[in-house]
Amino acid sequence: MRQRSVYRLDDERVLEMLAHPMRLRLLGLLRSEGPNTASGLARRVGESSGVTSYHLRRLAGAGLVEEDPERGTRRERWWRSAHEGTTYSPADFLGSPQAHRASVSMRREVNRWQQRLLDQWLAEEQDWDKAWVEAADSSDDVLRLTPVQASALSAEIWEVVQRYQRLGRDSAGEPDAARVVWFHHLVPVRGELPL
Q: What's the chain's Rg over C-alpha atoms?
């Protein structure tokens, strides 16, 4: 079974380049919707093709996107994500205030995207089949764990998600199959829980 291609982000310069909201959006679109042109992405994000072209070149320079040789012509350049996902640890950048700020900026932008997606679900929920409304999930819990236990929990959940990622490839053609987004946040809390 084919392993997912995952980019390990450990370079401060790439982190700072990727912390730009437009670059995150373009990379996310190429990963979730497949290859596209600068013009097609510009229409999707409401920008000019000059803007998207510039950011695509920056992403390509970092090895995150690449030209799609199976598409395109001399007049039209198609781009695709070079990897199916990105992984990194904010802990790798704690020694550099500038890199840590970029890490926080990038995660805030991802959290904003997740909130927009959740808001979209709430607005559309009544239009979905009852089976999907029942299958959709949002939950939380408060646990008392050590850092080792928290890491083990995250790793175990990630293994399950990857197993379903592989199963999803097999069911992509099913009439009732839909893309599903999975979120996971595991953070320690000092003091009282914010309300």
A: 19
